[in-house]
């Protein structure tokens, strides 16, 4: 084991080496240098504008007011159809109940008619049988009156349900018409937006075709990483990508960079395109 001062010296040499290595890493560029003619960089802004336009059209397509309107109307249609089916079922049940009650009235009436005919014919001579027959006729009359009241009550309920069915049918037809109109308006809006997207995409294809491949590749990568904005104009000392103003050091670096050097915003790392309005 060596003397203590030798071990300390070795430690100092190791620390100095680590610091030098750290400084070397700090001096390394963040990405390989990239050059492109100023006209190509300006053209890249045209590509960005078209991409932004396409993105706006896509956003508008996804958020058409007709989407929410149709969702609400279709929910109303579903609810009204359920209510209508329930009302129609109840009306149908009430119709069968009415038919059964009317049949019961007819049976009692027919029996009362037969008893009255027997009574009027004189065929029944026994005082007891006559009394029983007369009592039955009175009972049948009471039974018929009660059943007729049941028929009237059922008829009233059926008429109420028929009105309910008519009301629901009308409301359903109205809502379905509104939904159909919304579908037509949505389809028209989507068609117009699709046409705009198609035109912008074709124009983008032409403009992007004139941009150097390496510059376009970097732009597409940054656009995917930065919310759809890969290149921004430097306007009045401010990056239009992150909306932050460059400090004096950053401005000096951009000012002294060659015209064909592709510079990046130190804040958002987007491609920063210089124009006569950059304020340099």
TrEMBL record:
Name of this chain's protein: C4-type zinc ribbon domain-containing protein
Which residue numbers delimit the C4-type zinc ribbon domain?
A: 238-272
Q: Which domain of life is it from?
A: Bacteria
Signal sequence span is none
Q: Which PANTHER family match?
A: PHOSPHOLIPASE C-BETA-2-RELATED, SCAVENGER RECEPTOR CLASS A MEMBER 3
Name all CT398-like coiled coil hairpin domain ranges. Answer: 47-227
Using the record for this protein, list the coiled-coil segments as residue ranges, or answer none: none
The taxonomy runs: Bacteria, Bacillati, Actinomycetota, Actinomycetes, Kitasatosporales
Pfam families found in the cross-reference section: CT398_CC, Zn_ribbon_9
Q: Which Gene3D superfamilies does this UniProt record tie to the protein?
A: 1.10.287.1490
